[in-house]
Structure formats: C-alpha cells, structure tokens
C-alpha cells in the first residue's frame, strides 16, 4: 500500500489483481471538503494522473488513454463531498490506458495536483454554475510514495489508424448524417486553407490576442510548434472524425488519444454552434482545434481543471507556462483570430 499526503486530503493506493489499483481519498480536516473529480481516479482513467515506470529499466510507460474536451466542472455534478474523517474509494484498471511491454515490477506514482473546495467556496455557486479556476484555489500535489506492483507483459493494443497519406481526400467521417459530414468537411477545409496559416502568423503579429490566451511571449516558439504540427498533419495525413464513441459521456464535447489521427465527437459537440460567435465560445470549431492540439501537439487540460475561457485567461495571466500546454487556450486563440478575420 502507498500513502500520499500533502494537504488536507490523504490518498491511499492499494494493488488489486490484474493491474487494478484502488485509490482511497480521506479527509483529514475537521470540516467538510469537496474534492473535484476531474483528472482523478474518481472518474476512471480519462487523463494522465500517474507515472508508471518499469522498475528494472526505469522506462516510463506512455499514457495511451483518452483526453476529452468538456465544460468547466459544476458544484452539483463534479465534486465529491468528504465529511471530516470520511474516506471514499474507487478502483481503476491500468491496462485501460497503459501497455506493459515487459513482465516484472512497475512503480506507480500519483503525479497530478488535487483540487478541493470548502463549504465557504461552495456557497458562492449554485448547483449548476461553473466552478471557475482561480490561481489561489485549493490545489496541492500529494507527496509521492511509489507503489510497486508486478505486471505480466500485456500485448500492444493497435490503434484504429488510417494510412498516413491520402491520395485525394484526407477526411473520413463515420456515423454522421449528411449535414453533419458537410459541417466537418467544411471546418476541416477551412482549418488547412485559411485557419492554421492565419493563426501561425498571428502568434507573432497579434500581440493582444496572444497575451490574452498565452501570456508571456517567451513561450511563442512552443505555441508555434503546436500549431505547425497540427497544420502539417491535418494538411497531409488522413484524419478521421467519428460521431459517438464508447468513452463518450453526457458531459463531453469530444475526445482523442495523443499520437492518433482520430477524434470522437460526443453529445455536447452536436449541440454546439458550428463556428465561434464570440470570444470564448465552445463551438464545434473550437472543439476540433482543441482535440487536434491533443493528438498532434501533445497538449493537456491543465491548471486546476483546465476548461473554459475564464480558466484559460487566468492561466495566461498567472501561469503562462501552463497556458501554453492547455488545449482550450489553443482553441480559443484560433477562434478569436478567425473572428477578427471575418469581422474585418
């Protein structure tokens, strides 16, 4: 068993059979605390919150699970109440997101900050109102006491990939109606003919928008590299869009897996406007840029909970290094550049 503690909530990790790990969260305070479930085992494996290493070689195993775009969390749906001294546990299966190429011992460390709210914090929000990110929110990184487990070698799970080159049309749309397919093809065409070339220029030429979404200009080269990778792959490779997916929930716009050429489009995507109507709009356009920045630029959903325009701008102001790795920021900057283009 591994015990992690740095802050008012303790995390216990315990090995189960077959790559299953039990996580127990305990409130050590004398008051109620609300633990945000985004990016934690409380929602399964939907983000990278663990470091998994082969003990003998030190080789770190890559996270191969999904990364989803979703709205900012709300008080009523995305926080777990922990009363004083109370513990809650959940179990996840590491093989859902990690491949174990060698039989032997692996070390597991909890590496992602936890976010919690107090009763006073919660009184400021209604059940369905978003919980905005704030740089002074209650966030802490548990001190890591590694858990060692034994795993037999697991086979590599092949990804559902298309050929790298497309002779004519590099867009594949699955399970969509005729109208839905047209929307996807139009957005994709705009991305490669107008959108990304314009956005790549704007990174250095539109200082106002850059500072709004990324802050410190010393990170420009990294921001450029993410957009350029997306532009290259979207222009040259076969890219697949699938309506629906086994990991879609009612709280998801879309999801992808880093290093792949496929985006799964979920329920909130279908309800979103096609293009952003205003700055910070979570449109279909913004969602696609968000997801491709994950797939090709290896961005994350960082900074507390990482979602929404308020969070994105707060990160740019206070944590630009995190903002430049946050997928929503790439989507919002892209859409703001396009809004200015169409308004002019």
TrEMBL record:
The name this protein goes by in its record: Lysine-specific metallo-endopeptidase domain-containing protein
Database matches in InterPro entries: Fungal_M35_metalloproteases, Lys_MEP, MetalloPept_cat_dom_sf
PANTHER family xref list: NEUTRAL PROTEASE 2-RELATED, PTHR37016
Family: Belongs to the peptidase M35 family.
Record-linked Pfam families: Aspzincin_M35
Domain Lysine-specific metallo-endopeptidase: 201-335
Cofactor(s) the protein requires to work: Zn(2+)
Organism of provenance: Amphimedon queenslandica
Keywords per UniProt: Hydrolase, Metal-binding, Metalloprotease, Protease, Zinc
GO MF: metal ion binding; metalloendopeptidase activity
The UniProt record lists the keyword Protease: yes
GO biological process: proteolysis
Keyword check for Signal: no
């Amino acid at each position: 068993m591994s015990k992690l503690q740095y802050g008012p909530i303790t995390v216990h990790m315990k090995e189960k059979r077959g790559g299953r790990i039990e996580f127990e969260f305990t409130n050590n305070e004398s008051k109620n605390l609300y633990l945000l479930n985004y990016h934690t085992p409380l929602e399964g494996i939907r983000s990278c919150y663990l470091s998994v290493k082969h003990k003998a070689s030190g080789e770190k195993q890559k996270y191969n699970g999904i990364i989803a775009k979703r709205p900012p969390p709300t008080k009523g749906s995305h926080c777990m109440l922990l009363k004083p001294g109370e513990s809650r546990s959940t179990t996840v299966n590491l093989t859902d997101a990690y491949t174990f190429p060698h039989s032997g011992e692996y070390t597991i460390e909890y590496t992602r900050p936890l976010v919690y709210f107090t009763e006073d914090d919660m009184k400021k929000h209604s059940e369905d109102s978003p919980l905005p990110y704030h740089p002074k929110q209650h966030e802490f990184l548990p001190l890591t006491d590694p858990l060692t487990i034994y795993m037999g070698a697991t086979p590599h799970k092949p990804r559902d990939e298309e050929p790298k080159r497309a002779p004519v049309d590099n867009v594949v749309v699955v399970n969509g109606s005729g109208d839905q397919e047209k929307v996807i093809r139009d957005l994709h065409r705009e991305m490669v003919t107008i959108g990304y070339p314009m956005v790549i220029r704007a990174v250095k030429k539109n200082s106002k928008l850059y500072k709004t979404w990324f802050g410190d200009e010393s990170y420009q080269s990294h921001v450029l590299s993410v957009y350029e990778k997306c532009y290259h792959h979207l222009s040259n490779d076969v890219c697949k869009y699938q309506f629906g997916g086994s990991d879609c929930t009612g709280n998801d716009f879309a999801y992808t897996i880093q290093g792949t050429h496929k985006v799964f489009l979920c329920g909130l995507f279908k309800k979103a406007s096609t293009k952003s109507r205003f700055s910070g709009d979570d449109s279909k356009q913004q969602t696609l840029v968000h997801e491709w920045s994950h797939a090709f630029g290896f961005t994350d959903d960082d900074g507390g909970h990482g979602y929404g325009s308020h969070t994105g701008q707060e990160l740019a102001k206070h944590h630009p290094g995190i903002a430049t790795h946050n997928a929503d920021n790439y989507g919002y900057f892209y859409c703001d550049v396009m809004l200015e283009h169409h308004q002019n």
